[in-house]
Amino acid sequence: MSTRVLVTGATGFVAGQVIAELLEHGYAVRATVRDLAATGKRAHLVELAERTGGELEFTRADLDRDDGWTAAVSGCTEVMHVASPFPTTPPDDERELIDTAVEGTLRVLRACAAVDGVRRVVLTSSTAAIAYGHAADAVRTEADWTVVERSAAYQKSKTLAERAAWDFVGKLPADDAFELVVVNPGMVLGPVRSAATSTSHEPVRRLLARDIPGTPRVGWAPVDVRDLAVAHRLALETPEAAGNRYICAGEHLWMGDMARVLAEEYGPRGFRVPTRQLPNWLVRSVAIFDKGVRLTVPTLGRTELLSAEKARRELGWTMRPVRESLLDTAESLLQHGIVAAPTQRKTGSWPPARSAARV
User: Fold this and answer.
1) Burial class (CB within 10 angstroms; exposed 0-12, middle 13-18, buried 19+) of 290
2) pTM score > 0.90 for this model?
3) Which end of the chain, N or C, is surrounded by fewer C-beta atoms within 10 Å?
4) Does residue 230 share a domain with residue 215?
């Protein structure tokens, strides 16, 4: 297969799995990185290409800069724009996060419009652009949009970036037009391919490392990164997907439920996974010192209800059991040394000191 696909943000968690999925299905891949000299960050992708015999090349392009994008897109018939900032703590200035997400998306799309031959763009958005800021709980579908006026910075960034993409494509003249498909994943779990983690790994990491003494009453609608990568490929390959959004997420899962699964599996191995639920007042108090916990405060008690029926029906997409995803996530964090074995840990106190929270 001679089709060359551009994937943005090569060293990211989701992009790495998307690259693997494409290589394993015979696509040639060009992938963007911010620094070509940082070869260590992409060594696992080079090894993957060698193992599969796939064609993989890297090019420099940054969401915050105009240069590099036209060259990156040239010669590619499809583009998967996966890269987007996902902070582990609330940003000091939400405009920086929003501007990077929106302007970065538009930089990619402008390059696609300027270069001949681009047929389709698959944009990785999020259920953060669908399910937040609504006045009442309901099962959300692709017809819904997050209400940015009642949402936190990350949800705003994903919503405004996706809306900007649809607006941009809708205004293209016929000669420059290309198809747009949007994939909206929930909380992305699944095994890491390197020692770098994603923000979505933080609940599993913190539970295994016992960084917290219990679980806030927060939850998410998860999806396995391997299944998400399949959804991206199907979004690229399915002719009828053009012009559509696709939710890729399962049923709501409380952090307390995650903790119980991990405790059952890893308790016999010496891990003291915290399973008691923390009262909301305590979570809010700790959030003053712990920015990671602060990120959960706006969603305390919130149930995330989403329907992935459209992706199942139109793309033929399926998900593996969430328990499998959760345990594979945990095992990979241990294998890559992101979480230390119980005998290797230093004892500490919780909540963390105020000075440590600023590091």
Assistant:
1) buried
2) yes
3) C
4) no
